[in-house]
Design brief:
190 residues, mainly beta, 2 helices, 11% helix, 53% strand, globular
């Protein structure tokens, strides 16, 4: 009887209490952060960050134990118009150096549904770090049909107040609130 109990205890000790988070790397070819703002009531202007890097520790069984960390150079911003890009990089807005980064590091995840969660994290923009909540959706997780490895895709939204990041030029003529949409794919790290 003692050997049966000892064997059972050893077997149970070898079984993890819960699944571990698995490291995924963001696919820079399928990662975008889109933002928009109304320009003096005349048009909606769009911009994007793309091709950025980051890591996700994704726990499928317990998503609340997952983490995400991403960063991108400010000067990787795509505006579609060189004069607008130059204005954004001027002292009116970012006054950005070549090595200035935008970053997000999660600090907590609240699961809100089968494929949804609120991801809280520290968002750093223009030298200012503030807590931000991303309203996130897991689009799909599974085997990538072309790459033949585990893959995951996520979308998220949030709204930033640009004045909180010392980017409030021309408020209220150009709104302070900037809606942000994020779509990323990530592959299991090798």
């Amino acid at each position: 009887m003692k050997s049966l109990l000892a064997s059972t205890a050893l077997m149970l000790a070898a079984i993890p209490a819960h699944a571990e988070a698995v490291k995924y790397t963001i696919d820079p070819g399928h990662a975008q952060v889109l933002f928009s703002f109304n320009h003096l009531g005349f048009s909606e202007i769009f911009g994007m960050f793309s091709g950025f890097t980051g890591d996700i520790a994704f726990d499928k069984e317990h998503p609340e134990n997952s983490t995400v960390s991403v960063s991108m150079p400010v000067k990787s911003m795509i505006t579609g118009f060189p004069a607008r890009f130059d204005h954004f990089m001027s002292p009116d807005f970012f006054d950005a150096t070549d090595d200035e980064m935008v970053s997000f590091v999660s600090t907590g995840i609240e699961v809100t549904g089968e494929n949804t969660a609120l991801i809280t994290g520290d968002f750093t923009l223009n030298g200012v770090t503030k807590p931000v909540v991303l309203d996130a959706v897991l689009n799909q997780a599974g085997m990538h049909p072309i790459e033949n490895k585990e893959w995951a895709g996520f979308d998220a939204t949030t709204t930033l107040l640009r004045s909180e990041y010392n980017l409030g030029a021309f408020v209220p003529y150009i709104p302070d609130e900037i809606p942000v949409s994020i779509s990323i794919e990530a592959m299991i790290a090798e």
